[in-house]
Amino acid sequence: MSNPAAEARLQGFIDPNTGKPLGPKALQALSQDQGHLSVTVALGYPVATLGEAVIQGLRRELGSIEGVTAVTVTLVSRIKAHAVQAGLAPIRGIRNVIAVASGKGGVGKSTTAVNLALALQAEGARVGMLDADIYGPSQPTMLGIRGNPETHEDGESMKPLMGHGLQTMSVGFLIDPDQPMVWRGPMVTQALEQLLRDTHWDDLDYLIVDMPPGTGDVQLTLAQKVPVTGAVIVTTPQDIALLDARKGFKMFEKVGVPILGVVENMSTHVCSNCGHEEPIFGKGGAERMCADFGTELIGALPLDIRIREQTDSGRPTVIADPHGSLAQTYRKIAQRVALKVAQRSENPSVKFPKIVVQNT
Fold this sequence. Notes:
By secondary structure, the chain is of the alpha/beta class. Helices cover about 30% and strands about 20% of the residues. It has helices spanning about 5-10, 50-65, 110-120, 140, 185-195, 215-225, 240-255, 285-295, 305-310, 315-320, 325-340; strands at about 25-35, 35-45, 70-75, 95-100, 125-130, 160-165, 165-170, 205-210, 230-235, 260-265, 270, 275-280, 295-300, 355-360. The strands form three sheets. An eight-stranded mixed sheet has the order 6-7-5-8-4-9-10-13, with helices on both faces. The model is unreliable at about 350-360 (pLDDT under 50).
C-alpha cells in the first residue's frame, strides 16, 4: 500500500544536515501496512552520526500524517562521484579524491590527513589513504603498517596495504626506511602517478591524499593531473604558516579544485599537567583567512601531546581514543568534509553505485 501524502512530505523534507529538500531521488522504498509506514531513504554522505537527525525529523514529519500510527525509517548511504577538474578522467575504484595540503611543512598536515581518513571511515564510508609525500612518507608509521605491496590477481596492479581498515599506499612501503629520496620533480610526479593509478583501490567512497608540503612544481603538477573533488588546507594560527597556506589556497583555485575547508592545527596549547590552554602561535589567523577567501573553518585542534604520542605509536587519535574530545573534533571535521562533497555537482562519467545500510 503506497501513500502519496507520505511521498510528497518526504520529498519536501528539509535535510537538517544540508538545509536542502531530500527530493525524489532520495526515496528508495515506501510501504504502509495498516498504520505502520516504512520508508527507505538514500543520502549522499555517511550516516553513522549524521543520520540520526534525519531519522528523528522524518519520524516527526511522517508521523503527523493522518492514519499513520508508527514510522520506521531506514537510511542508506549512497556516496556518488562528484565533479573534478575539467579534462581529467576518474580513477578506477575511487569515487572522490580529497587532497589534504599545506603551504609549508610542520603544521600537522599528515596527522590531520590520517585522522580525517579514519574519521570518515568511522562515519561509515569506505576510505583509502595515499601518502603522496615522496620525500618524507609518514603514513606507514602513523598507521602502524609494515611490509611490501603484493601484486593483484590482475597481474598489473598492486594491492594496497591495510591499516586500521584503510586501504593504504605509500612509497614508504617500497623503499628502506633510511633511504633518502634524492629525486628531481619529474621523477617524483611519475612515481606518485604510478602509486595512484597502479594501485588496485577497491570501491572507495573517498581517497585521502596526504600531499607534499609547499606549492612548487611537484604540487602544481599533482593538482593538474590528479582528478580531485576538493581540498582541505591545514595551517596553524602563526602568520608565517598562514602566508604559505594562502599560497596553497591560490594554487588549488588556479587549477579548478574547490577548497572544502580549512583546519587550524595547534590552535591552542594544552598543558599536560594542569590543562591550561594558551594560543602560543597566535589567535584567529585561520578565521581571518577563511573570511578573506570565502571559505569555511571546518575545525580547530589543540597542540596536545596525546595527538603526537598516539600517532607516533601507529594508533592515531580516532583509533586510540575514539570517544575522546579530540577524536570527536576529527569526526566533526570529517562530517563537514563529507557534506561539502555531497553538495558538489555529480560526475556523470563514474557509474559504480553502492548502497550500504548504515542506520535504522
